[in-house]
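Quarterly update, task 2.4: pyridoxal-5'-phosphate-bound model.
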Amino acid sequence: MSEFIPLSVPNFGTKEAQYAAEAITSGWVSTSGAKVGEFEQALARYVGMPRAVAANSGSSSLHLAALAAGIQPGEEVIVPTLTFIAAVNPLTRYVGAAPVFIGCDDSLCIDPDGVEEFCANRCTLKADGLYNNQTGARVRALGVVHVFGNMADMPRLLDIARRYRLVLIEDATEALGTRYTAGPLAGRFAGTMGDVGCFSFNGNKIITTGAGGFLVSNHPDWTEHAKHLSTQAKADVLQFLHDEVGYNYRMTNVQACLGLAQLERLEEFIAIKKARYEQYRAGLDGVGGLRILPFREEADGVRSNHWFYSLSLENTALDRDTVIAQLQARGIQTRPIWALIHEQADYPGCEAYDLDKAQFYRKNIVNLPCSTNLTEADCGRVIAAVKNLL
Ligand SMILES: *Cc1c(COP(=O)(O)O)cnc(C)c1O
């Protein structure tokens, strides 16, 4: 039997081993050491921001973003329902805020029409901000996720956030490297256009430090506050004085070394992601009613990182869970897209609007293997196995 093809695994080589070994032999293996600062500078340079703050996960950087934005208990945050739970918990439950869920458009990202509709018809804009008519609560922020590396509709979402006085928090955990190439936002990377943006280096992301993340902000004081909160809010290091409740959300020096090596390979990884994506499209799109979902591309003024591939079963008799089980039996790991968050145990009875497309994609999507070490031959094997199910 041929080898197992996993969904999405790290791609480490000699450079990662060499850089990490330097940290290990130097003894700087924990949260002190020069490499974290060096990695933060390299990340800031890559995404074109003055400063980046490293953290020990994407989830913790999202929590830091919510704290730096000053989201208060009892306030509300507009979030997508079709996403990973870590895009929602840190912006809402972690800080005592409540979510209002909105569905997606055909990019799988939050639907600007749904957000506009909620703000315009179910809220009242007062002198000090937007208020939800149903709950009376202040609607403080808008969380936007760049799903699977696809760019959300930022010109419209930024305009909505400005008009309704919402803090815009970008979850770019899946979209490192995605950027506008044309239009009013040309040159801007996913994660750098809102008030604050977060990234992840978890093992399944386009580059990884095992676990890790970082944030950037267009408010220099928010960036410094996030750094402060991530290091136990130390006001005086020697005397152990802390001026607020902080966290240990720091990245280690070893992780930073892994990240420096991975960042050198990011553009190469993005090229591989695109090549495999094109291979899946050529092999499966339009075959027997199958569809490979599109990304925003150069024609739309976007360079996408093509992180995660979606096969849609909308026009076939094939059923999602049967496809996943049958591919698993052939040594190929796939998965369904996330269960909708407004239906999860922790969010009973929350407001949720504009759900048709989110429900449709939830039912029809199977995510295909997408590791950057997936070879052309592996990808060919996945294509053949899928065709064989038709
Ligand atoms: C991976 C991911 C996160 C969380 O990142 P971690 O580093 O795993 O904590 C948050 N949001 C989305 C959309 C993700 O895909």
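Highlight for this quarter: DSSP finds eleven helices and 18 strands in the chain.
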